[in-house]
Amino acid sequence: MTGMLQNTLHQRGWIIFGVTVVILLAVDLVMHRGGEGTSKKSSYIWSGIWIAAGLLFGVAVFVMLGAERAEEYLAAYLMEKSLSLDNLFVFLIIFRSLSIPQQHQHKVLFWGILGALLFRAIFIFAGIAAINRFAWLSILFGMLLLYTAYRAAREDPATKSENSVVKWLSRFLPVTEDTEGGHWLLRRDGKRYITPLALALLAVELTDIMFAIDSVPAVFAVSRDPLVVYSSNIFAILGLRALYTALEHNLRNFPYLHYGLAGVLAFAGVKLIFEEWLAISPLLSVGLIIAIISASIIATPRGRRPVKNGAKPPGI
User: Fold this and answer.
1) Cα–Cα distance, 255 to 158 (Å, whole number)
2) Which of 259, 215, 220 is CA-nearest to residue 240?
3) Crossing angle for the helix pair 85-97 and 67-83, to the nearest 10 degrees
């Protein structure tokens, strides 16, 4: 494939990706306007739509850029989708610690994830430029991922009852005790205050930035193509809002999931550090990621039963 043809196909890929995301975000915003469409059934449907969109874009990558790039895309998508499960626990803790009503949760997640599009772009394009110029950065990123994997294996997010970002922000920002109709800001006694809704949004954004520091280098282990890395990242995180609503009451029923996430991070770290000597194909990476996450889910004790809607899981 000549360089000019490859650039043309990449440009088409960016156009298809951009148009698809804009259309789906617009429809999602309209469908959930005013807190409507936040039922379990709706969340399952939207989870399916976002997953289907992500996989169909992988087919488009295959048609335009070939099998190797499509395999890289699938591996990157699965890796980011797996690692983003950590975000779901954070959403759970933030919303419950701030008593955010369910009808306002979609609003927070929509704008929070929308902001992630910008921050992920900055991390990804700066990271790819840096790692292409300084090859030794791949070793540094790999070591960072191994440390993060160690930390993830030791700290089960399901056991946390408060979010450190929320606690830190609350010390410096004037926050009201109620959301009062879903507003971001309120004026009382001549002073301007932020509502718990705005505090939740800030916490979601800052937490995603911290997660991106770990998850973006992990995707570099399977691809350095900007279109592949960014599109897989965005399709993976855009479905988090619906996935959270679908799994909200069942998140803590998988006590070994954090070991699976640690395993994915460790795999990416090893691959980055030894990429000059250890050749692992994108297709094999896909198989390993699926195997690691599946094992952590299958290992769930038989005594753990999914929590029924309306009931709080143990420890919350």
Assistant:
1) 7
2) 215
3) 30
Q: What global pTM score does this model have?
A: 0.83
Name the one residue in this structure whose structure tokens are 């000059």: 276
Q: What is the reported pLDDT for 143? A: 92
Residue 83 has a pLDDT of: 85
User: Per-residue pLDDT tens for 251-288?
Assistant: 667 778 888 889 998 999 898 899 878 778 888 888 98
- Contact predicate 260/296, CB 8 Å: yes
- Are 9 and 227 in contact, with CB atoms under 8 Å apart? no
Q: How far apart are CA 209 and CA 56, in angstroms?
A: 27
Q: Is 226 exposed, middle or buried (0-12, 13-18, 19+ CB in 10 A)?
A: middle
Residue with tokens 């300084």: 134
> Is 61:68 a contact under the CB 8 Å cutoff?
no
Is residue 71's pLDDT more than 90? Answer: yes
Q: Are 53 and 236 in contact (CB under 8 A)?
A: no
DSSP assignment string, 251-290: GGG-TTHHHHHHHHHHHHHHHHHTTTT----HHHHHHHHH
**CB within 8 A of 77, min separation 6: which ones?**
54, 55, 58, 232, 235, 236
Radius of gyration for the chain, computed over Cα atoms and rounded to the nearest angstrom: 20
Beta bridge partners of 188: 191
Residues 39-61 pLDDT 10s? 777 788 888 888 999 999 999 99
The CB-based long-range contact list for 58-65 (8 Å cut-off, 24+ gap) reads: 60/13, 60/16, 61/13, 61/227, 61/228, 61/231, 64/9, 64/10, 64/12, 64/13, 65/6, 65/9, 65/10, 65/13, 65/225, 65/227, 65/228
Q: Are residues 175 and 79 in contact, defined by beta-carbon separation less than 8 angstroms?
A: no
Q: What is the dihedral of CA 18, 232, 216, 117, to 10 degrees?
A: 30
> Shortest CA distance to 252 belongs to which of 300, 186, 211, 285?
300
Q: Of 237, 217, 249, 239, which is closest to residue 127 (Cα–Cα)?
A: 217
